[in-house]
Amino acid sequence: MILARKFYSSKMKGLLVLTALFVAVFGKKTFEGDQVLRITAKNEAQIFLLKELSEQEHLGLDFWREPVHESLPVDVYVPFHSLQAVRVFLRYNQIQYNVMIMDVQDLLDDEEREMVKYRTIPRSTDDFVYTAYHDLNSIYSFMDMLVAENSNLVSKIVIGQSYENRPLNVLKFSTGANRPGIWFDTGIHSREWVTQASGIWFAKKIVTDYGRDPVLTDILNNYDIFLEIIANPDGFVYTHSNDRMWRKTRKPNPGSSCVGVDPNRNWEIGFGGPGASSNPCSQTYHGPSVHSEPEVKAIVDFVKSHGKLKAFVSIHSYSQMLLYPYGYTRTSAKDQVELHELARKAVSELQSLHNTAYTYGSVITTIYQADGITVDWTYEQGIKYSYTFELRDTGRYGFLLPADQIIPTAEETWLALMAIMEHTKNNPY
Amino acid sequence: MASTGDLEPTHYPARRAAQVALHYLNTHHGSPFRVFGLQQVHKASAEDVAAGGRKYKLDFSVTDWGSGSAGPALRCSADVLFPRTERHSAPEVQLHCEALHQINSTAQEEDAFYQKYISPDSTVSARDIPDSFGNMSEEMQPFWRLARVAASFIMLRESSENTEFNMAKVASVTQQESSEEQLMLEFVVLLHDFPSQEIVQWKLLASWSPDRGVRVLQTEWQPRCPHATKPPN
Fold first, then answer.
1. The whole model's pTM is what?
2. C-alpha–C-alpha distance, residues B189 and B191, integer Å
3. Does B132 contact A133 at a Cβ distance shorter than 8 Å?
4. Residues in chain A, pLDDT under 70
5. Residues on chain A bordering chain B, Cβ-to-Cβ distance under 8 angstroms
6. ipTM of this predicted structure
7. For residue B197, which residues of chain A lie inside 8 Å, CB to CB?
8. Which among B197, B201, B229 is the top mutation candidate for probing chain A, defined by the most A β-carbons within 10 Å of its own β-carbon?
9. List of domains in chain B
C-alpha cells in the first residue's frame, strides 16, 4: 500500500478542505479513519462492478473520479464505517487499489496547523505563534490585542518616539493606583531576537497567571509591572529588512557615514569612558552626548517621572549571565552582597527548569568593562534591584537562536524574574 | 589592570583564555561531525612570563556540540600564552584532554559525507547558514561544522586577552574543485567578538578529508561596509 499524498492535486486538497469546513460548520463531524482509495480497474467488467458499488448509497462513498474506463484511475472517498466492506469487495473481485490518503483527519489536522502557523493576522493572543520570530507590526498588533483582551489589567503607554518616529510602546500591568513599579525591557539591542520573543511570552504569562498563581497575583496586587518589549524599534526593523546583525539605534552621525549609537552606552553614568567607543562606526559607540538617543531619553524620562520603580531588568542576549552593577567601575555596588545573593537564587531557579547553566556577578568582572550602561544609571537613580540578563546561548548559535528555543528560554528566564520580583516585594525600601 | 595568581573561573579573563584553548582544540580535532564547546572553567590562574607575555593555566570541561546535551563532558587542561609583542601575534596553546580518543567515533559519518561530496559533479553552494531564524537544514549541518572548525584557525590566530570570538554565521559556502582528494570549500564567515561587539567578516579556503582533517589554505579579511578600515589588532 503506498501512501501517496503527493499524488493528489492541490485542487483535490482544496476540495477536501472545503468539504471539511462545510461539514464542520453545518455538523460536528470528524474524519478520523476515513480514507481515499485509488482504484485501477483492469477491464470493462471491473468498471461495471465499480459502477454498481457507487450505487450502494448506504456506504456513503464519494467518487472523486468516477469509474469510466479501465485506462483511467478511480478515486473514491471511503468513510471509516464502510472501509471493511469496500476492501472485502475489491479483494473478492481482484480489483487493484492503493491507499491515497491514509487518514483524512490527520491531513486536515496538518493543514490546520500549517494554516494557523502562517496565518498573518492572529485573531487573539491565544492564536499568536509564540514559537516563531515576528516582525514589528505583528508584535505591535499583539500588544493591542493583549490590551483589548485584558483591559482591566493591561494598558499601553507610549513613552516616546524612536529616531524614525516609531512609537515606543510600554505595556503597563496594574491592579490599582499609585503603586510602586517593576520594569522589564527587551530588544534594546535589536539583533538579540530571543529577547523580544521572550518579552512577548512574558506579557502573555502575566495575564495568564494573574489570579491563578498566588505569588504573581500578590506581586501585582502591590506593584505595577512595566514591560517594553521592543526598546529599539528602528534597529529591529533594520534587522528584518537589511542587516540581521544590527545592534545600535538608526540615528545618523553627523560627519560620518556610519549610522547608529549603542543604546547601552548612552546613559549618564561613566559616560565616554574606556568601556565604550567614541568612534561612530563602532558597535559600542556611546553617542555624541548622554541620552542623545530618543529611545534612551524616553526611558530616562519615564523612570524619573514615575519616581517609584523598585526593580529594573534590562534583557539582552547572548552568554547566559545575570549581571548587576557596576560596568563602569570596579568599585563594588553598595548593595553588592544582597544583589549577588539574589542573583544566585534567581539563577538557581532558572537552572531548575531545563538545566541551563548561567554565570552571575557584576558587569565589569563577569563580562567586560562597559561605560554608560542602563543598569548602572538606574542603580544610581536609587533602583536597588537593577539587573541585566544575557539570555541563551553561549555562542553556538549566538544571535541566531533557533525558534524552538524561544519558549524554553522564556520559561526559564521567567523563573528568575519571578525570584527577583518576589524578593523586591518582600524587601520594600 | 590584569590580575595575577588565581582567577575567578566564571569571570572573563579565565573564560577568554579557555575559549582560545577551545579554538585550538577544534583546529586539531574538529570535523564535519565534531565541534567542541566550552562547558565550564573549573580552575584558572595567570602569571606574567619573563619573555613578556601572560600565561594562563586552565582546568576546564568541554562538550561535543554534535552529540547535544546528552554528550559526555571531556576534562581538559591547557596553558595559553598571550605574547606581548608590538604587532599582534597568535597565542600559543598547549592542551591535553582526557579520553579524547575514547569519544564515539564519527568515522562512518565522515566517510559517507566524504564519498557524497568528493565526486567531480558535486557543486555545493549555499548562503546564510543558519538563516535569520536560526534554521539550518540537516544537509547543511556538516558544512556549518566545517566552517566552524575552519573559522577556529582564524579565531585562534586573531585572539588576544581583549577578544572573545564566536562564529555568528556562515554567510556562504561554495565548493571548489577537489584537489589531491581533498574536499575544497570556500567559506565566508561572520565572526562575533564579544568585548567590541563587532561582526567581522572573513573569506577562507579550507580543505578536508577524513584522513587529513581540516586545513585552512587562505584567509582574507573582508570589510562589511565600503568605507570601513581594517580593525586594529
1. 0.81
2. 6
3. yes
4. 1-30, 106, 109-120
5. 132-133, 239-240, 244-245, 247, 257-258, 262, 277, 281-284, 319, 330, 355, 357, 359-361, 365-368, 394-403, 405
6. 0.93
7. 247, 262, 283-284
8. B197
9. 5-221 (3.10.450.10)
